Amino acid sequence: xxxxxxxxxxxxxxLGIPTCFRWREKDYFVGNGxxxxxxxxxxxxxxxxxxxxxxxxxxxxxxxxKVVEGGVFDLLHNTPTGAWKLIRRFE
Length: 91
Known about the structure:
single chain; 59% strand; 91 residues; globular; 0% helix
């Protein structure tokens, strides 16, 4: 499946690692196989960063999650706003 780009609700553990997320009225529980990395935000879309705020404002947290129900999902976490988006689903 290609890019999805839909808002999701995510539950995290005490360390901030996703344990479950809800997409299209269905809950997905995270199993083994969690990867985290940082990527550049799509700065050309939406609001511009304030001048002088630094390059950290352009980074977003990315998570690749293997779920118990089967499948692998990429989620984007915008740490300043706390918003989560489902970016990709791999069958």
